[in-house]
Amino acid sequence: MADNKAQLHIGDKTVELPVLTGTVGPDVIDVRGLTSTGRFTFDPGFMSTASCESKITYIDGDNGILLHRGYPIEQLAEKSDYLETCYLLLNGELPNADQKAKFVSNIKNHTMVHEQLKNFFNGFRRDAHPMAVMCGVVGALSAFYHDSLDINDPQHREISAIRLVAKMPTLAAMVYKYSLGQPMMYPRNDLDYAENFLHMMFNTPCEVKPISPVVAKAMDRIFVLHADHEQNASTSTVRLAGSSGANPFACIAAGIAALWGPAHGGANEAVLTMLDEIGDVSNIEKFVAKAKDKNDPFKLMGFGHRVYKNFDPRAKVMKQTCDEVLSELGINDPQLELAMKLEEIARNDPYFKERNLYPNVDFYSGIILKAIGIPTSMFTVIFALARTVGWISHWKEMLSGPYKIGRPRQLYTGYEKRDFVSVEKR
Ligand code: CMC
User: Where are the bilayer-spanning segments (predicted)?
Assistant: First the structure.
């Protein structure tokens, strides 16, 4: 690398590639000029590729740092709340008191969904996975809100963002109520964001119980801790879908689909399923051995991260919240004891140490959600609810500057051209 240029030698040719410097973080080699050589880079899984420029979130995986618009996640989790964090992600700055009041009121004005959207649910089996229903109903929003679909109009983009953040708790709770066969609850705008979600989840028209402030606070913190995480698989999916000009509701539905997998947002559900499978502290060693066995596809769910090679800072806050919630609610959960023992054994195991595999955010969030009374199948829906603001902030950022349709190339290793063979000769 010479000055701020990198040199690449291909045969007898030398290509000079600019080196871009961010505010913090490693320099990035700009390979766009390579197209003039007729060659491409090869990077499956984007291990060495920055797919975009962004000002929203910064992660230093080696040191366990996560910043939203420069603010550390620990400070936001402790001193802020979810809607304030949403404002920060969407607008770049923390709101003043007046801006915050207007934003909260704006969100509250959009919490209801079109009445006809309810009919959509009837097309799903009651035992459908909640994420399957979420993909469908969030995508369906684009069939209802035609007045905010012009992606080239900043005002439309703004309204779509507000609508999505406002309606996700309503839709998530509707999905849950549908699975139970209970009446869906309307949102209540006298409650705050997390309280309202818990009200729609757990109350019924014939019995409205007050929401515990401890539980509401924990719920809000879970939302803050999941609000954004840079260019992960689902956010990159939202950007890719958005780069073709697709409408925001369709893009978020794509993000929900990408989040569902157990290597990503589906891990919080998978952690609890795994703890159930382990069953007892005496079985931990056996499962840890399975996780280390390269011939066995089993992995310890809730461990490891593509970017964090140190403790996930969200997991630290989540563990603290987990302790608070369990002691406030007086819950003595044997699954938590099992989780703590598993963490201890895995963290002292050379295999996990050498590979820097620490518990991630999903390891503890499942235990808190379970303590709150949220069923396992809803865990990833809650992740999707909270991450919607991150997805839509990235989508808005991309659309507000110059961008190109995302279109990766490939290393083709299939057949060369060959002639068609008729069926009787095959
Ligand atoms: N259990 C056992 N071994 C593991 C685990 C695990 N949970 N995670 C990684 N490894 C091993 C992996 O087999 C590999 O070993 P080797 O070098 O001998 O081949 C090494 O550690 C490096 O892992 P990798 O698979 O190359 O790492 P990656 O960056 O491709 O994958 C990951 C990251 C999160 C997909 C993976 O760690 C994993 O599947 N973890 C379990 C699922 C999980 O908890 N996901 C939630 C992630 S945090 C929330 C979110 O982003 O949605």
Answer: none
Give the whole-angstrom CA distance, residue 45 versus residue 43.
6
Banded model confidence at residue 320, pLDDT cuts 50, 70, 90:
confident
**Helix, strand, or coil (residue 160):** helix
- Which residue lies with its CA nearest to atom 37 of ligand 1? 304
**Inter-helix orientation angle 379-399/213-226, to 10°:** 50
Residues with CB under 6 Å of ligand 1 are: 232, 263-265, 267, 291, 299-306, 355, 357, 360-362
Residue 57: Cβ-neighbour burial (10 angstroms; 0-12, 13-18, 19+): buried
Three-state SS at 66: strand
Q: Which of 268, 292, 311, 357 should be mutated for ligand 1, with most atoms under 8 A from CB?
A: 357
Enzyme catalytic residues: 305, 362
* Residue-range domain boundaries for the chain: 5-50, 73-403
Cα(357) to ligand 1 centroid in Å equals 8
Residue 112 burial (10 A CB sphere; 0-12, 13-18, 19+): middle
Atom of ligand 1 nearest to the CA of 307: 29
SS3 13: strand
**Residue 303 CA, ligand 1 centroid: distance in Å:** 7
Give the range among 122-131, 136-145, 234-243, 302-311 with minimum mean pLDDT: 302-311
Using a 10 angstrom Cβ sphere, with 0-12 exposed, 13-18 middle and 19 or more buried, the burial of residue 356 is: middle
Nearest CA to ligand 1 atom 24: 306
pLDDT for 1 equals: 46
Ligand 1 mean position to 280 CA, how many Å? Answer: 24
Contact at 8 Å (CB) between 406 and 239?
Answer: yes
Contacts of 62 (CB under 8 A, 6+ apart): 309, 310
394-420 residues labelled b (16+ CB within 10 A) or e (exposed): bbbbbbeeeeeebeeeeeeeeeeeeee
For 73-403, CATH number? Answer: 1.10.580.10
Q: Strands of 57-60's sheet, edge to edge? A: 57-60, 65-68, 71-72
Q: What is the pTM of this model?
A: 0.92
DSSP-derived letter for residue 305 is -
The correct CATH number of 5-50 out of 3.40.50.880, 3.50.50.60, 3.40.50.11540, 2.20.28.60 is 2.20.28.60
